[in-house]
Design brief:
InterPro entries: YlaH. The chain is mainly alpha-helical and about 110 residues long. It contains five helices and no strands.
Amino acid sequence: MDWLVLASTYYPANPEQLSAYESFRVMVDHNRTWIIFVELILVYYMGFATRIRMPILKTILLLIFLFAGSLIFAILDTGLPVKSSLMVAIAILVIVKVRIKPNTNQRG
């Protein structure tokens, strides 16, 4: 994964003395692929999964494809706001899930 570190977008002004914010930004920049992978899993299960339990081989295949997508999104994240776009998608899906949940309880 060193080739993703080469595509780093954040360079602190003084690398010897990092503030808490700068060290957080460097950590997020180096773990970009894993952060996007977790966000993609959340978006998939909140927005697209019809059922949570799938056979194990399908789940493994799904995770492999999501990780391949996160690698592509990590490369695109150097120039586009992919992480923040996924966070907005997660926020919208949480709002939709919270608003739909009380309506289903009142009908039953």
